Fold Peptidase S54 rhomboid domain-containing protein.
Amino acid sequence: MGVPLHMQVARHPATSAVTALLVGVWLRLLSGGVAPAAVGMSYQRCVAERQWWRAVAAQVAHLDLLHIVLNVSSLWGLADGAEPAGRAGASADYLRTSCLLLLASAAICLALTRGALSFPALERLRHTTMVGYSCVLFGWMALLAARAPAGHRGGFNLLGLATVPMAAAPFLLLAITQLIIPNASFLGHLSGILAGLLMASGALDWLTPYWTACLAFWAAVAQYAAFTP
């Protein structure tokens, strides 16, 4: 038998909070008739037009019901490894890491796009719009796979269909995502994987919970200012 919903919430409160945020934003956009592309992230909007708020807003918005179901399912498939039940400080560490993955993946994605724009044939990437929490999820998969002890493969519940090795999870999920959602951003997902490997290397360890909270605060202020007339 599966674990009852209320027990899942108690075991993984931070994962539950992120789920509520993602679903809440999706419902808000849906009820307001706001197209996800209106808050999406593209190089042109974020860098050329300096609409930096999109780097955050885009990652908590989703295209449609299928898109958010896919990401929420993956979010909970990572819950046991990303937010271990009963471990002191696990929820705070989960939120800190998720915040850093969100910001790092956006920065890496924009940097990769800038590099790609050096080639005239890839000029279309300037206006390619990305939305969804997938970057953070791919980052978590890469991070957990890199952190796993030698000889320990770990496991990821792939959409309730099968449990696969964590090291293979990002690539299998990427293939499924591209199959189900053909216009999904390959570059965005790759950025998430690179952000996870960056975290695993320890390069962002200097960003303590305090400094991460400061980053999150100013990101929230920027979001509020962007949407306030």
Notes: Residues 5-227 form a domain with the Rhomboid-like fold fold (CATH 1.20.1540.10). The longest helix spans residues 90-116. The CA atoms of residues 83 and 94 lie 6 Å apart.
